[in-house]
Amino acid sequence: MQIKELQRRGVEIHTAKNVLKKKINSSGQLYKHKARCSFRGFTQKERFDFHETFAAVASAAVVRLVIALAVGCVMKIHHLNVVRAYLFAPLAEELYVWAPEGIAAYKNECWKLLSNLCWTQSAGADWKKMFTELILAFGFVAANLDETLFVMSDPVKNVCIVICIYVDDAIVAENWPSWFNKFIQYLQGKIEITDEGSLHWYLSVKYSFNINASRVLANQVAYVEKVAKAFSIDPNLTKGPKTLMDERFHVRPEDVPDDEDVDPELQTETKSLTGSLLFPAGWCSPDLAFHVCKIARYAARPMPEVFDVGICILKYMVKSKHYGITFSRNVEDLAGFALNTLFAYSNALYGNDLIGQKLTI
Fold first, then answer.
1. Which of 11, 89, 123, 311 could lock 6 by a disulfide, CB 3.0 to 4.6 Å apart?
2. pLDDT at position 309
3. pLDDT grade, residue 249 (50/70/90)?
């Protein structure tokens, strides 16, 4: 179809760009150069050329649940990766795009997309729908707990396969190798998927197993060092604050600046720092959660004191970067407690918040 005809019909012709990215491994080293054509989805119009945008993103809690189940029940953990996942997802809408810059042979040409590209607004939802249908068609059952979690089991043989999906990645825990191999063969007949082997590196989290996989340590050393460098902090810092936050730190209502008095540079730095800290707080460093959430309240209208507390938390995190969450079925690690017992701790030290009068837990 001619471009003029599309324009006469009022069809929006979108743009795309070639994105080059460096992939970093668990040691913080470059191991891959990745190139892809990315659709500029921000030009799409809701209800006109896209509808659903929800992608399958397993939460940190679901990932920890699968790993804890695997360690406690002596199951093997696999990391699956779908290659070019979005290209397999059928496109529900009709989309046109100009040839990306750098492709001289097709300059000033318009293409009709036959499948999704990265960053089309509906790519995540379309891929989730397709991948979920494939998993359910094989015989898995969707868990009520979370729509990214699927289970297949045989109570008689006492075997099962548990899978949680995160966009184009999946973590699988299984003690049923025969059916797991059939599942992989089934998927490979439909899409391009690879079994990356045992789980070692996933979403900037490093998983370290002992010899018999009875203990797994999850931490984010490479990520912490990357954030430290971004804020000009020595990533090899060994001496730092002994606590995450001074107990005397309080923000009074009159201390919070008005919108017109906010320093834009300080606001940008504080938001960047807070976001960088929230990620490890939700995955491997739950001890940071309370303190990071406390300063996050003021990220939109920060004071220098709030940013300083964030730097203090970051230094504490750098000093303790090798700590993390340990999953274990070893009796000596349980300190006399029963296996599969859940413990919860809360810190009410900062409960006397002067603004909201509520805890951040």
1. 11
2. 92
3. confident
Provide the b/e sequence for 309-327 (b: ≥16 CB within 10 Å). Answer: bbebbbbbbbbbbeebbeb
AA letter at 97: V
Mean pLDDT of all residues belonging to the chain? 85
Token pair in block for residue 53:
């945008």
| CA-based nearest residue to 3, from 102, 123, 99, 143 | 99
Q: Output the CA torsion 56→58→62→67 (10° steps).
A: 110
Which residues have CB under 8 Å from 329's CB, separation 6+? Answer: 71, 72, 74, 214, 215, 339
Instruction: Report d(CA 317, CA 321) in Å as an integer.
Output: 6
Look at residue 361 in the predicted model and tell me its pLDDT: 44
Query: What mean pLDDT comes out for the span 269-278?
Result: 95
Q: How many CB atoms lie within 10 A of CB 39?
A: 23
For residues 66 and 173, is the Cβ–Cβ distance under 8 A? yes
Q: Where are the alpha helices (DSSP H) in the chain?
A: 3-8, 60-72, 85-88, 123-138, 177-188, 221-230, 264-283, 289-296, 304-319
With beta carbons less than 8 A apart as the criterion, state whether 147 and 135 touch. no
Q: What angle do CA 291, 297, 299 make, to 5 degrees?
A: 100
Sheet of 13-14: strands edge to edge? 13-14, 96-98, 110-112
Q: Are 96 and 113 in contact (CB under 8 A)?
A: yes
